[in-house]
Amino acid sequence: MNLQLEIPGRKSSLVMINPIMTASGTFSFGLDKPHGFNIQELGAIVTKTVTLRPRKGSPQTRTAETTGGMLNAIGLQNPGVTALIRTIAPKWTRWRVPVVVSILGATVDEYGEVASRLDGVENVSAIEVNISSPNAKRGGMEFGQEADAAAAVTKSVIQNTTLPVIVKLTPNVTDIVEIARAVVDAGADALCVINTLQAMAIDVTTRAPVIGSTFSGLSGPAIKPVALRMVYQVASALDVPIIGCGGVKSGRDAAEFLLAGACAVQVGTATFANPSAPLDVLNGLRDYLTNHDVVDVGEIVGAAQAAG
Ligand SMILES: Cc1cc2nc3c(=O)[nH]c(=O)nc-3n(C[C@H](O)[C@H](O)[C@H](O)COP(=O)(O)O)c2cc1C
After folding, report:
1. pLDDT, tens only, 13-39
2. Ligand 1 centroid vs 205 CA: distance in angstroms?
3. pTM score
């Protein structure tokens, strides 16, 4: 069975042995993996989003459980791109699994600056551009909610890197296809669909918002149908590699995203309840493909489009 895929960039490609990736912010920098977890079996690792300077993140409380998912407002706590390059990236040297570094800037130029610092860094195979975080005071989702701003960020990154560029979209928009088109026209090599849905919870005893920064991002199985709908919409409108993300916790979920038109999927929140979730998703996908006599995973990509 062939599970391999390639996301072509302008100078190099992101080549993955299978379509299962970790989602940004749910696997840190890949160094604290659970005992017995063979990271090399994954298609790719996506790091926590890094910014130009270190960030301390949001006040507590940062996470809460909801029915079918979780809320988070971590506030992009990260050591900054310089520390990533000096102390974290060298630890990836013996990995075969490609590492995708997620980046965010407070301004359009800052996105370009972070991208340029990562260009040529050994062990970095692609960049994921976070224009979708609901937890950044400046940058993030504000760029992903407006087509011109999304295009400007994409151009800024592309001008500053030779690596393949994946742009991660927010679901908190009226028309995701409009934003996706702007980003692709600006030169993005691939899209990641979607980041979290902006949400909140209120403690009825204290009568205050549960999450310290009031608003937060909803993730997990609760958002899967929304993510799937958005992947389907973007795939039917545009010819671009799409990485599906949102609520994937089984091989069957992964298959749904591929059928909708994604060529790969990311596993995020599921990892908190089950640290082996990305590998379980991979094994489940393999079983699904075997049971349906699929010899090449590419055969099912977008199959629901033809049926729908
Ligand atoms: C605790 C937590 C931290 C996250 N941090 C980031 C981040 O730094 N950058 C980013 O692009 N997405 C971040 N996300 C969003 C996930 O990458 C993913 O897009 C989202 O959670 C939906 O997928 P899931 O339902 O599989 O978790 C975070 C999600 C969670 C739950």
Report:
1. 999 999 999 999 999 999 987 778 899
2. 29
3. 0.98
